[in-house]
Amino acid sequence: MTHALLWIYALSGAAALLYQVVWQRWLVFTVGLSTVSIAVIVAGFLSGLGVGYLAGGRLADRLTPRQALGVFAALEVGIAVAALFSEPLLYEWLPTVGHLGPDAPARTYLVVLLLLLPPTSLMGASLPVLSRSARFGTVLEQSGLISRLYFANTMGGAVAAAATAFVFVAEWGFDGAVRLGAGLNLLCAIGGLLLWRSVGTATEGASSPRTAAAATTAPTGRWWLGWLANAFAAGLTGIAWEVLAFRLVENIVKSRAQTFAVILAVFLAGLAVGGLIGDYLRDRLGARRHVVFLASQTALYVWLAGSVAALIAVLEHFPPASPWLAYIRSYEPGGSLPMLALNYGLLPGLLLFVPALLMGFGFSLSQQLLQTSSDTVGGRLGLVQFVNILGCVAGATLTTQFAIPALGTAGAIRLLALLGLGYAAIWIRATTRRTGPLLASGVLIAATAAVPAQDHLWRVLSGQRDVGRLLYREDASGVSSLRFRPGQRPTAEVFANGLGQSMLPRPLDSHHVLLGAIPTLVHPRPAMVGIIGLGSGGTLWGASASPATERIVAWEIMASQPALLIEYAERTLDQSVAWFRGDPRIDIRHADGRHALRMGSERFDVIEADALRPSSAYAGNLYSLEFFQLLRSRLREGGLAATWVPTPRVLETMRRVFPHVVYLGDLVALGSDQPIVVDWTAIRRRLDDAAVTSHFASGQIDIVPLMEPVFRAGAAPLPPLGPFDPTQVNTDMRPRDELPARLSRLAALWR
Question: What global pTM score does this model have?
Fold first, then answer.
């Protein structure tokens, strides 16, 4: 029975991770895409799990094994029902609610918690309930069931984290993925009922009323408080390290839409394997278990600091690492197969798998140590996991809101690593052989000191071995940087979280200038202009040339980007980069542009999304049918929506929304409710205006030779719209350019 139960619980874990990925995506449409918003969403999801752990633990110790299996089946049915209602609730209804987002984190957290509480609390309750699904001869064997359940559930989540991004959403969309998850939950319920029948009607081992009452009362004393403190510290460390390690990895691998899924899968796999190793050693550790637990958790913190210090040292001083450093320095994602293996295998293994393994190992050993009575297994597990979730929420909040803004990534890593001294101190008190813990303490202090300073860390993680070629800013929203090329003329590439975005000075990246200038020069009176994204400022700068423009609103997710551009301008004296500081028309706001447009009531003559690779994470939100519908609703009469056209599907998607679309220069598409007049003679007159000429000259741009090929060729002829083909359109549910379907393509090739 146990093996069947583990397979069932693995499917339950897969469904849970699938929901987390999808629900986070849907909630972003309401609360915005920002570090604060994501942290709030994660906190709400985890808090629901914590409530479930606590309630499930209080219930579990009252159940016989047969009752526990029946309750588990009911929990899975409840999760499936809640999941099937999640799309109309989270994606359709929630955006109609009042103001939610990073400006109202407390309100947003409460709303997210309440909406996700039914399914997440049922998910959390399942582990303590299943901990009572079988009875063993000793409490140590009972703790082994918990470790194996933890392994199965977490490994199922690891597989689902990757499969959701690479297969489920790509093939069936976010809505289809949720229906798949509901099917998995119902399958788990059926499996639980089959096991329920096989157990029979025996009630041996049921808790007596007296025992049940005792199980609902949390133990007291320093021993129990110590385990609760450990649970809190473990949760805080796990989430904090996940945030910090992902920031490091993201800046190295040049993140794609699937990057986070891979990283999460590696992290969860490490937790699962660590839990399994702990269970394997259960009968072998004996009296050494407590010391081994303390040693392993001290080693965890040594690894956190030491792995970062070693990574930087290898990149900076190890000559064979030069190709890797060159890739980090490069502008575009990609690379050879060995480089992909390095970035998505060795690197996450170093920074995430090994620490997660030690965390999972610690969970297994902690259960072996704190479970001392068969009558209180579920209650203790539920309470400990509830406190662990509190630590997770604290870790997400403190890391993103306080540690990174105040200390930077390097300082946050050092501070986190020093928590290991607490385990080392307890280890010293727990053993008479103090050489080991004292040595481990010294190694931990040395590893923490070896973590490079903030400037040093980001210089190397920008691919630079030489000082002076990097300008960067880091805050909770990410890492913005400008990397100077060798040579006498100051030229630089603009990066966001390690991925190249644009170049400076302006003549090196005229495409962004054209993207901004074309729609505002085509529109006869572009008084009000909206730009989603700042980057190098090229699109915004091109759009601000027209004297007819009275106001420009630019939304930028990376909060430090404007300050970084000003720093570059002061260093290079390039006034075309810092012009926005003195232009009273320009209003740069730190916000998710799509979220801001949905929440606001302003109307625009021109709205444009700055160029974004369609394969980037969340890029589908700016190329979808629903996004273009939002733009259309925010345009004034005769207004223009503009977008870069990186794929034919983007153009087809736009044409499904706007009755009038023109495609210019194989570069930009303009959409409107009214016919779009592309008059080169009128545009040329606007370009000859002294203010326009002076504006472009300040950036060393000769605009007429750039514009003339675009407009003399005219608008590209567009074929009539054919029958609606959903595979040729991006939607919020199926962002096909961001997450392309591979299985369908392979099947078509096979046929």
Answer: 0.91
